[in-house]
């Protein structure tokens, strides 16, 4: 399942942080430097969040560090729920020290003494390995009180998720850790100002944190020299089982998608008409269109799609796009937290439309469907139901020929 790197500088799949001694050396170097110097390195690396939003990591850390309170938190979002995504699982199980090191550096910079790893319950091996790594680091005085004899103290705990997709959204994840119903909170305030237990909190994805050791070891210029200023470094990309060579790959940002599909993935085992990149909320891209793109957050967004977490799900030629939209609406309906009306009612109403289309009891009222998609996009509190219109709109745009017998143009 786990595959080799296709990167100029192996950042995530390398073994440069595989032992407690290596971890100790890197932590010692960080604790000897001024916090502002380390933060400057992270900022100048142009590392953006790998969980999907792509927010600049250095900026997020800086905003939290400026909050003048005694208690702060670092949270690792390891609630990997996107279909076709397993890069977080790879890092948690094969590179656990990189993830924990990233959290520790963040805690040191923002002034936190506590970190929480929110790991989905479907990853029992990941939980076991991370727990073992935490215990080993505590024994070596690399976690806990007065790390390496300094005034810096920081402990880590694990919170096990119970299978709710909405917990991948940071405010719902925070609510879950606190023992509350996993619902999205209205923002602002954002977690860096008011997060876990109402204290300033940095929430970072697993892959984002795992990139920190390489950035600090080799420098910001090495990382930022790959890709471009807004999409720098490398990215883990997951190719599904319809590729001839499925797996998780570390790939340079800016790499042509055509190369990823045809050279790295070696093409498909059966005819494929489109790819959904970035999970259920990511864009559905026809093969001819995806081959025009590069692995780049901004380029995907500009084209009307979303790179997101980097999972790639192939849609076979034989699979009905009417069924695919029904699946997307059903997914958002099942997984919605239910807090906002556009999310709770909109996704269910969309599912009803396509229920009727599939059982041939009624045609799809296209005008009403388009109004529904606009309402969800503009009115939902979070990206779950607010972003689901993106892949649906993509399908309606590029695959209109599949709907000609199922659409009521006047309704």
Report on the architecture of this protein:
This protein has 411 residues and is α/β, with parallel strands linked by helices. The chain folds into three domains: 2-224, NADH-ubiquinone oxidoreductase 51kDa subunit (Rossmann fold); 234-316, Ubiquitin-like (UB roll); 321-408, Up-down Bundle (de novo design (two linked rop proteins)), CATH 1.20.1440.230. The protein contains 18 helices and twelve strands. It has helices spanning 20-32, 35-44, 57-65, 87-94, 96-110, 124-139, 170-177, 206-210, 212-218, 220-224, 257-264, 287-290, 297-302, 321-335, 341-358, 366-379, 383-387, 389-398, and strands at residues 2-6, 73-78, 114-120, 155-161, 201-205, 234-239, 247-252, 272-277, 284-286, 311-316, 364-365, 407-408. Strands 1-7-6-10-8-9 form a six-stranded mixed β-sheet. α14 runs antiparallel to α15 (341-358) and α16 runs antiparallel to α18. The longest helix has 18 residues, at 341-358. The chain is globular, with a radius of gyration of 22 Å. The N and C termini lie far apart (47 Å). The mean pLDDT is 93.
Quaternary state of this entry equals single chain
- CA(first)-CA(last) distance: 47 Å
Tally of individual domains: 3
CATH architecture of the largest domain: 3-Layer(aba) Sandwich
Strand tally is: 12
- In the CATH scheme, the class of the largest domain would be Alpha Beta
Element string (H = helix, E = strand): EHHHEHHEHEHEHHHEEHEEHHEHHEHHHE
């Amino acid at each position: 399942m786990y595959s080799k790197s296709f990167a100029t500088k192996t950042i995530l799949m390398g073994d440069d942080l595989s032992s407690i001694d290596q971890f100790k050396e890197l932590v010692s170097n960080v604790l000897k430097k001024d916090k502002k110097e380390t933060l400057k390195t992270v900022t100048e690396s142009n590392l953006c969040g790998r969980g999907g939003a792509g927010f600049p990591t250095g900026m997020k850390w800086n905003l939290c560090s400026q909050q003048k309170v005694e208690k702060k938190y670092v949270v690792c979002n390891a609630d990997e729920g996107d279909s076709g995504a397993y890069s977080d699982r790879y890092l948690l199980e094969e590179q656990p020290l990189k993830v924990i090191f990233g959290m520790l550096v963040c805690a040191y910079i923002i002034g936190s003494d506590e970190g929480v790893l929110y790991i989905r319950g479907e990853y029992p091996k990941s939980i076991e390995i991370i727990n073992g790594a935490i215990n080993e680091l505590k024994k070596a005085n690399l976690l806990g009180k007065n790390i390496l004899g300094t005034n810096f103290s920081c402990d880590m705990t694990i919170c096990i998720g119970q299978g709710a997709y909405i917990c991948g959204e940071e405010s719902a994840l925070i609510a879950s850790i606190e023992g509350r119903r996993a619902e999205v909170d209205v923002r602002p305030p954002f977690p860096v100002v008011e997060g876990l237990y109402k204290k300033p909190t940095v929430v970072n994805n697993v892959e984002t944190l795992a990139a920190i050791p390489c950035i600090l070891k080799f420098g910001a210029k090495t990382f930022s020299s790959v890709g471009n200023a807004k999409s720098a470094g490398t990215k883990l990309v997951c190719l599904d089982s319809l590729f001839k060579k499925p797996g998780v790959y570390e790939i340079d940002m800016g790499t042509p998608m055509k190369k990823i599909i045809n050279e790295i993935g070696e093409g498909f085992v059966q005819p494929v008409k489109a790819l959904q990149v970035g999970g259920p909320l990511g864009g559905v891209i026809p093969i001819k269109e995806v081959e025009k793109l590069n692995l780049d957050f901004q380029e995907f967004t500009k084209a009307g799609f979303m790179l997101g977490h980097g999972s790639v799900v192939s849609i076979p030629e034989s699979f009905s796009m009417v069924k695919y939209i029904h699946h997307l609406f059903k997914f958002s309906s099942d997984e919605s937290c239910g807090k906002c009306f556009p999310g709770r009612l909109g996704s269910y109403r969309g599912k009803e439309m396509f229920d009727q289309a599939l059982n041939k009891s009624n045609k799809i009222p296209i005008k009403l469907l388009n109004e529904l998609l606009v309402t969800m996009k503009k009115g939902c509190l979070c990206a779950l139901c607010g972003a689901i219109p993106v892949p649906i709109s993509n399908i309606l745009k590029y695959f209109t020929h599949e709907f000609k017998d199922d659409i009521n143009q006047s309704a």
